Amino acid sequence: MSPSTTTPPAVTDTAATATAAASGAPEEAGPRTPLTPSTLRGIVRDLAERPDQWIHHVRLSTEERWYRRLAGDEEHEVWLISWLPGQSTGFHDHGGSRGAFTVALGELEELSLGGPEQGLLIRRVPAGTARAFGPEYVHDVRNTASGPAVTLHAYSPPLSSMAHYDLRAEGLVRTSVEGPEQW
Q: Which residues pair with 137 in a beta bridge?
């Protein structure tokens, strides 16, 4: 499935409002500092509270996770993803982008490495929970529940690549890299 570039006005307005609030200055042309994980968390939380802006886009796919790009500009982008039981991302990074996601409906599980002392961390992520992360973050998100889930994701700068990893005894080993043409 190819992601769409449809931009609902309310989604763009929410993102622009959060961006202006984060910078404290009017928008200017030219390269920008990426939005902080906290600002991205605010964007997805605000949008999750307004399902009338995204619920009509949701589709469920038995083949793979379904996804759609809701909004994007040079500074950030917002994605909508649906998950059926058993679907997962596998371990992946975000190509150096900062990010955040919130579970709008359902429940997911997130796996990440917590370092030598902590090992593998497994977090339950119920509806209403938002997670934010920096540019080096690697995780695996999966639906281990018995029903579907829907999430909203924001990335800054917009995703340019994603590397995938296998978890092995020696740690994470990169297995592939994909770019926007594969989304």
A: none
Element (H, E) at 149: strand 149-156
Q: How far apart are CA 15 and CA 169, in angstroms?
A: 41
Q: What is the pLDDT along the chain (183 residues), one digit of tens a residue?
A: 434 333 333 444 444 444 444 444 445 555 689 999 999 999 999 999 999 999 999 999 999 999 999 999 999 999 999 999 999 999 999 999 999 999 999 999 999 998 777 889 999 999 999 999 999 999 999 999 999 999 999 999 999 999 999 999 888 999 999 999 988
Q: How far is CA 97 from CA 52, 94, 138, 165, in A?
A: 28, 5, 11, 17
Q: What does the block give as tokens for 99?
A: 């990010």
Q: Is-cis flag, bond preceding 157, omega within 30?
A: yes
User: 175 is written with which tokens?
Assistant: 């297995």
**CA angle at residue 177 from 171 to 183, to 5 degrees?**
130
